[in-house]
TrEMBL record:
Keywords: ATP-binding, Nucleotide-binding, Transport
PANTHER family linked: AMINO ACID IMPORT ATP-BINDING PROTEIN, PHOSPHONATES IMPORT ATP-BINDING PROTEIN PHNC
Phylogenetic placement of the source organism: Bacteria, Pseudomonadati, Thermodesulfobacteriota, Desulfobacteria, Desulfobacterales
Domain ABC transporter: 4-229
Molecular function per GO: ABC-type amino acid transporter activity; ATP binding; ATP hydrolysis activity
Family: Belongs to the ABC transporter superfamily.
Name of the protein described by the UniProt record: Amino acid ABC transporter ATPase
Organism: Desulfosarcina alkanivorans
């Protein structure tokens, strides 16, 4: 059934209700695109799924496990969920390969050799293996974001969360990042993407969710949202 279940979730920042009774089920392999005005709670919803924000009420289950239940290991959860942010968050003092060799591979307790082999495969997958030994500042924004995606994939997550992954990029670099995301979608990855890229939504989304004021106002197919009547 559902790999992510969001049940009656509320999140407050002081008196501001950032998530107001959110209910959402996401099935394995499903691609969900979240749209809505700035400040509507899109990012807070994604961050709550990954437990970067703690919800105040309701329940979020990932793979059947309550993510706020202390008996469930947070590291296990973070391995199931890969997240990509608007800012690339690469470690500046590590090479591209070094960035992939950090936390994720360590969690998996791989030997250095197999971790490196896996990292190179992932860099190849996002089309950037020739940059393995350079530092992030030598890369374009689009290249850095592709590294960030490959780093998130290093944990072999079941689900990928994208929070406006192309919003910080120059227009000419958006395509190369979306292409990596489209390929991931074609491989069957479960994806939840906050994005303004309507072409992407039209191409890959199974479900589009429109949020406003902390609520899910409407759910439908891309056709429902983007085709003129
Ligand atoms: P969106 O991603 O749709 O732009 P957000 O989820 O970032 O919206 O924010 C939802 C609302 O919660 C906004 O009003 C925002 O200002 C507020 N908010 C988000 N994070 C915090 C925070 N850490 N502290 C206080 N308010 C926050
Ligand atoms: P986004 O592009 O996701 O909407 P924002 O620029 O709204 O990001 O927020 C960036 C960071 O600041 C996030 O970590 C968010 O939680 C936090 N934040 C957003 N709004 C507020 C707020 N009103 N007060 C404090 N922190 C906030």
């Amino acid at each position: 059934d559902a790999i992510i279940q969001i049940k009656n979730v509320y999140k407050y920042f002081g008196r501001l209700c950032a998530l107001n009774k959110i209910n959402l089920d996401i099935t394995p392999g499903e691609k969900v695109v979240v749209i809505g005005p700035s400040g509507s709670g899109k990012s807070t919803m994604l961050r709550s799924i990954n437990r970067l924000e703690k919800i105040d009420k309701g329940q979020i289950l990932v793979d059947g496990k309550d993510i706020n239940d202390r008996s469930n290991d947070i590291n296990m959860l973070r391995q199931e969920l890969g997240m990509v942010f608007q800012s690339f968050n690469l470690f500046p003092h590590k090479t591209v390969l070094g960035n992939l060799m950090m936390a994720p591979m360590k969690l998996k307790k791989m030997s250095k050799e197999s971790a490196e082999k896996r990292a190179m495969e992932l860099l190849h997958k996002v089309g950037i293996s020739d940059k393995a030994h350079v530092y992030p500042k030598m890369l374009s924004g689009g290249q850095q974001q592709r590294v960030a995606i490959s780093r998130a994939l290093a944990m072999d997550p079941k689900i990928m969360l994208f929070d406006e992954p192309t919003s910080a990029l120059d227009p000419e670099m958006i395509g190369e990042v979306l292409e990596v995301m489209v390929n991931l979608a074609k491989e069957g990855m479960t994806m939840v993407c906050v994005t303004h890229e309507m072409g992407f939504a039209r191409e890959v989304a199974d479900k589009v969710i429109f949020m406003d004021n902390g609520k899910i106002i409407e759910t439908g197919t891309p056709e429902h949202f983007f085709n003129a009547p």
